[in-house]
């Protein structure tokens, strides 16, 4: 069933897309913008080493833990309402983060920021697929959203370094305030009003508790892997598995499920989420590992490291906004997606074989351009496939599921690849290997794992997304 069309003038719909993408950009940028400024914040406010991890951890736990619930709330009470509440909460809490006088206030404000970010992000894809139903327009709209999702992390690292150097760490949060206010005022004017719910369905409160607790615990376990070690992370992982297992049982029994299990019978939806998990695990880890490589091995400063990653964002922008929508309309997402994944795998292979005397232009730049190009091809195609069968009553929770998978994949990839790289580098150091070469060996090993993740995603694409099931035919082009 195709989502119902929202009859808005073309200009208004594209302005609405700008507002939605602005909200997504603020939420995604905030995942990485703090990482660059973390040492400065830690020193200024007197964080302990363990406490400093909660500056990012509080945001990620709230953000990932509430995506599924926020998506379902959008289906029940209105996606516009949920987006506006999230945007307002995110903007106010950003101001509180900038004003924070001590660690407790900053961590609490970051947690509220995560709640606002989850509310904004969870309903975005659901709103886009109902705003844009014509295949060509939808491809362009999802391409724009994919660009924001894909480039937000890199942009956050660049902005964080530049703003902290030029002004202070407070301004990485203050910048959200005028952007948030402007986006909120525009949203009131251009976002369509919420339609009446299809049924007077109630919220599955026990399911919401299980989902939020399970996802938050899972993210805590993953993000704490480097800090706490495998034993504690596995213990929390078992708790998360128990909570999420309870969620599945609850959804089978309740008449008003938070996550309708009929969605999981869609081969395309499940396949797209599996591929997304693997792809984002590789790419999110790549962004951080590459920043570490250029800083710790090749001695780039913060500004140089941010600028070194800029070609990735440029390549993603050109592909996501211009090239991929046309390719998807002409050839179909299932043909474009494996091509993009293959290009990414080649880029990872180049990084996995970086020589010790590598320099930026002949060695790093080709790999970065391939990764940006491949991601710009793959991400819009994957999002289109994942949301193709979302019905009006379930598009919010389908969007929340897709974003939840992205967060879990990103956290899993970053933590695992970083732990593997660190452990291998430590082993090489113990053997007497010079530090730069030991670090490079660790990063190369993790980049090699990235090749395996992306090739597995490509195989899953061919297995799970290769055939059209009932109701999955592409709409005829007008």
From TrEMBL:
InterPro entries (UniProt xref): EmrB-like, MFS, MFS_dom, MFS_trans_sf
Domain spans labelled Major facilitator superfamily (MFS) profile: 16-469
Superkingdom, taxonomy of origin: Bacteria
CDD domains, sorted: MFS_MMR_MDR_like
Sequence intervals crossing the membrane: 12-29, 49-70, 82-101, 107-132, 144-163, 169-191, 203-223, 229-249, 270-292, 304-323, 335-355, 367-388, 408-425, 445-465
Main location: membrane
Molecular function per GO: transmembrane transporter activity
Gene3D superfamilies reported in the protein's UniProt record: MFS general substrate transporter like domains, Multidrug resistance protein D
Keyword list, A-Z: Cell membrane, Membrane, Transmembrane, Transmembrane helix, Transport
Membrane topology: Multi-pass membrane protein
GO cellular component terms attached to this protein's record: plasma membrane
Keyword rRNA-binding set for record: no
Compartment annotation: Cell membrane
Pfam families: MFS_1
Record-linked NCBIfam families: efflux_EmrB
Protein name listed in UniProt: Drug resistance transporter, EmrB/QacA subfamily
């Amino acid at each position: 069933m195709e989502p119902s069309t929202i009859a808005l003038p073309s200009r208004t719909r594209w302005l609405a897309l700008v507002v939605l993408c602005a909200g997504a950009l603020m939420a995604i940028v905030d995942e990485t913008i703090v990482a660059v400024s973390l040492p400065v914040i830690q020193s200024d406010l007197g964080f302990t080493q363990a406490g400093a991890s909660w500056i990012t951890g509080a945001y990620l736990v709230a953000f990932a833990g509430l995506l599924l619930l926020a998506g379902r709330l959008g289906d029940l009470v209105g996606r516009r309402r949920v987006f506006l509440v999230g945007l307002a909460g995110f903007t106010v809490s950003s101001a509180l983060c900038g004003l924070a006088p001590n660690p407790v206030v900053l961590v609490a404000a970051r947690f509220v920021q995560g709640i606002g970010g989850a509310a904004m992000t969870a309903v975005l894809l659901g709103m886009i697929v109902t705003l844009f139903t014509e295949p060509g327009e939808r491809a362009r709209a999802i391409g724009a959203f994919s660009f924001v999702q894909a480039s937000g992390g890199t942009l956050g690292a660049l902005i964080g370094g530049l703003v902290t150097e030029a002004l202070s760490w407070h301004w990485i949060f203050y910048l959200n305030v005028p952007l948030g206010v402007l986006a909120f005022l525009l949203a009131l004017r251009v976002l369509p009003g919420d339609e009446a719910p299809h049924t007077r369905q109630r919220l599955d409160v026990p399911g919401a508790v299980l989902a939020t607790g399970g996802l938050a615990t899972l993210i805590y376990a993953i993000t704490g892997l480097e800090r706490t070690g495998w034993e504690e992370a596995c213990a929390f992982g078992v708790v998360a598995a128990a909570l999420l297992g309870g969620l599945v049982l609850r959804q089978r029994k309740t008449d008003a499920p938070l996550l309708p299990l009929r969605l999981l019978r869609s081969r395309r939806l499940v396949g797209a989420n599996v591929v997304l998990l693997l792809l984002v695990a590789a790419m999110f880890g790549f962004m951080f590992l590459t920043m570490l490589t250029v800083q710790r091995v090749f001695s780039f400063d913060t500004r140089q490291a941010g600028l070194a990653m800029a070609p990735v964002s440029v390549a993603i922008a050109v592909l996501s906004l211009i090239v991929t929508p046309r390719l998807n309309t002409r050839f179909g997402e299932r043909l474009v997606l494996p091509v993009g994944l293959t290009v990414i795998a080649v880029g990872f292979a180049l990084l996995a074989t970086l020589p010790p005397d590598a320099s930026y232009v002949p060695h790093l730049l080709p790999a970065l351009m391939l990764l940006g190009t491949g991601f710009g091809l793959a991400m819009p195609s994957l999002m289109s496939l994942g949301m193709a069968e979302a019905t009006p009553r379930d598009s919010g929770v389908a969007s929340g599921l897709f974003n939840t998978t992205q967060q879990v994949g990103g956290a899993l990839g970053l933590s695992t690849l970083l732990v593997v790289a660190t452990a291998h580098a430590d082993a090489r150091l113990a053997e007497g290997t010079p530090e730069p070469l030991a670090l490079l060996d660790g990063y190369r090993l993790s980049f090699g794992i990235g090749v395996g993740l992306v090739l597995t995603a490509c195989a899953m694409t061919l297995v799970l997304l290769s055939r059209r099931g009932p109701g999955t035919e592409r709409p005829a082009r007008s």
